[in-house]
Amino acid sequence: MNTTTINPSSPSKELLNQYLSLSTHLSPSSATLTHEHQTDDTPNTNDAAEIGEGCCATIYALSPSSIAKVAKPNKQNELWNDFGAHLSVYEAISAVPTATLVPKPAYYLHAQDVTTWRAAQAKKIPSREPNDVLCAERIPPLPRIIRNSLVEVFCPKEQTAEVLENKDNDACLVRLYLGRRRPSSLHAQAKFSLRNFELTLDKMELLGFNAMQFVAPIAEALVVVHWKAGSDGRDVEFVLGGPPERRISAEGFGVLDSNLHMQRVTTWRKAGAVDEVAGLQQRCVYVWLLDFNQCSRIKADTQGVQMAADAYWDNDPYYPRPTKNDDNHSTEGKIWREFKRVYLAKAREILGDEATQPEDFIYSLEAKGQERQQDLVMAGPPKATSIGPGNDSKKKKGREYVGF
After folding, report:
1. What's the CA gap between 68 and 121, in Å, rounded?
2. Which terminus of the chain is less hemmed in, N or C, by CB atoms within 10 Å?
3. Would you give the distance in Å from CA 375 to the centre of its chain?
């Protein structure tokens, strides 16, 4: 286990290299430091802070550990679908553990019950016509020391002061884009933001850490989404966030209690894996899976394979893009081969050796990848490639992609 003491005065790139690594565990002093710098955007007021916005809902922080998604007008059915798919994926991940976490879903409120619910909440969502609400565990944002380092490394200097003063940037999660590399000619063209910061392959290389560490968590989670939860995974997101709260298993407690000879300790914000609990160490960051409002049910058949493949290509570039069979040296080639290996191995655990759907899924991706590469040769760079999403993607997501 790589236990790290983080020095706040270290250069920003060094801090990010240490902190954003899945193999780094914090020493007790560093864990205390990051908790001191952890975001608390639930101030001593009666108003819940708005921490995000998606296609179907606005997201508020009810507490440091819980959120409420409030449906936008005419988006109630989509939020209800989010709740159902979220439950399915959460239970599937719980049954087939992976290195990726899913926020625990709490409950759903029909609009007719929201007024009564609001009256019982310590934090008040801004007044509006009552609409459906989905409540769930909050993914802890990255602490201030890391946010400041991201700003120092990637933010244009003329925007730095404004970005650091903007409280919206406290809700910082990092999107893992294994399928995107910024072109060297791309320059910042929009306002810098730490909300949903895009960690592309070139940024990982700039920071000096190996993108391969994120392949297995994403590949294994996608297998569980497809073949255990029975979902196409359309529009889901993979992000780096802080460690979860209160996730200690009975087995972990037994090891902890035995090692400490019946002494009581605080397990708040301790991770659930036995080795981490026993060593009283805390991971710096975790891969989290979220946002299920556009997911559709699939079966383990030909149609299900096609729906899963379509969703893979239609999503933001969290997933690696298939490369040529003889690409054994590029970062993209190595990542794709590892993704393929892990995906098929995990699928065999779930479906058994006889199932063909996982291999059919991979074959479909590779065939589409070859088709796109041929189109690239014939017509020049397409509007949407692994380099970056195109205009259709922007419209679907309602997001603006920034070249930072």
Report:
1. 11
2. N
3. 31
- CA 2 to CA 12: how far, in whole Å? 20
Exposed (0-12), middle (13-18) or buried (19+): which is 90, by Cβ within 10 Å? buried
Across the chain, which has 404 residues, the per-10-residue mean pLDDT values are 59 89 71 54 74 93 94 96 98 94 96 92 81 96 92 94 94 96 65 92 93 98 98 98 73 70 62 40 84 97 98 97 85 96 98 97 95 70 40 44 36
Q: Indicate the burial class of 46 (C-beta count within 10 angstroms; 0-12, 13-18, 19 or more).
A: exposed
Name the E strands within 189-281.
197-200, 237-241
Say whether pTM exceeds 0.90: no
Q: Which residue has tokens 């035995």?
A: 258
Architecture of domain 49-137: 2-Layer Sandwich (3.30)
CB 251 within 8 A of CB 296: no
Instruction: Tell me whether strands 105-109 and 133-137 are parallel, antiparallel or unpaired.
Output: antiparallel
